[in-house]
Amino acid sequence: MAAPGPAGAAASPSPQPPQLPSPFAELVKSPSGLEKVVLRGSRNCCVEVYLYGGQVTSWKNDNGEELLFLSSKAIFKPPKAIRGGIPICFPQFGTHGNLEQHGFARNRFWTIDNDPPPLPANPAIKAYVDLILRPSEEDLKIWPHSFEFRLRVALGPSGDLSLTSRIRNTNTDGRPFSYTFAYHTYFSVSDISEVRVEGLETMDYLDNLKAKERFTEQGDAIVFESEIDKVYLAAPSKIAIIDHEKKKTFVVTKEGLPDSVVWNPWDKKAKAMQDFGDAEYKNMLCVEPASVEKPITLKPGEEWKGRLALSAVPSSYCSGQLDPLKVLQG
Ligand SMILES: O=P(O)(O)OC[C@H]1O[C@@H](O)[C@H](O)[C@@H](O)[C@@H]1O
């Protein structure tokens, strides 16, 4: 029996934080009061995932260098989604439907899922966390479908970050549902005018700045001189973001996600966003593996899987040595 406290009342044990299956994952409270899971890898390698939005907000390499962009003006207070990292757009990407822009998953509280159905085993991955989102009564009023959305965030031994989403239709009334989806990934870059994206040249895209009209990308790799908001269709499974100044290449690998959005608000839109610094557009680029053009449809009991894997490798492109095909084909 517990010993009585000073006032004679039984001492209540201090609440224990939930145990996570990975010894390299820890649940902590951020200064904003929101909870986040910290995944630790070798040396200074580290990933942070907020339960709010199921959102990765930080990915650091061995040297402790931040690889994702998070706005200095990001608001960590519901219902605002956190500006930066990797927001999850579900069940709607952008304005492709009647829901709020980018759907509601990014501003809901997810919970830790300590007993998810197994994923293919990868013994090399020691730092991971599984989250789950189910719709609330309120959510069912705006999107009348029952679902389970399981998200695994994993930090690989060489510092690679992967996100695996599994979405299951749990409707009991026999109805299918359809959705669009994106991993709205904000990369940190040295200077947007020194960046090029390879893998999307010659692709068809829908231009969000031109009423979603369809065009074909011309010429070489994508470079940035003004606002861009394009949905590249049937994009390849590997895309390279080459940062000349940092001599770094991000390799974005996607599975189950045919499209890829590329977004930078540039100066005018940056100024109009309350949670984004006026000049921050220079230091970020969104490349967002997505399924936008053709919504995904699931019948009751069916499950969809979409995976994003990110790695950051040194590049020597500025000296003209890098063969883009080597980056894209491994
Ligand atoms: O401000 P939000 O809702 O986070 O959206 C940011 C941008 O997200 C991009 O994915 C969209 O293509 C843009 O049209 C949008 O402006």
TrEMBL record:
Binding-site list for substrate: 83, 101, 106
Active site: 184, 288
Gene Ontology terms describing biological process: carbohydrate metabolic process
Superkingdom field: Eukaryota
MF terms (GO), sorted A to Z: carbohydrate binding; glucose-6-phosphate 1-epimerase activity
GO cellular component assignments: cytoplasm
Catalytic activity: alpha-D-glucose 6-phosphate = beta-D-glucose 6-phosphate
EC number: 5.1.3.15
Low complexity: bias regions: 1-13
Keywords in alphabetical order: Isomerase
Residue ranges, annotated region (Disordered): 1-22
Family the UniProt entry places it in: Belongs to the glucose-6-phosphate 1-epimerase family.
The protein's name: glucose-6-phosphate 1-epimerase
Organism in which the protein naturally occurs: Panicum virgatum
Species classification: Eukaryota, Viridiplantae, Streptophyta, Embryophyta, Tracheophyta
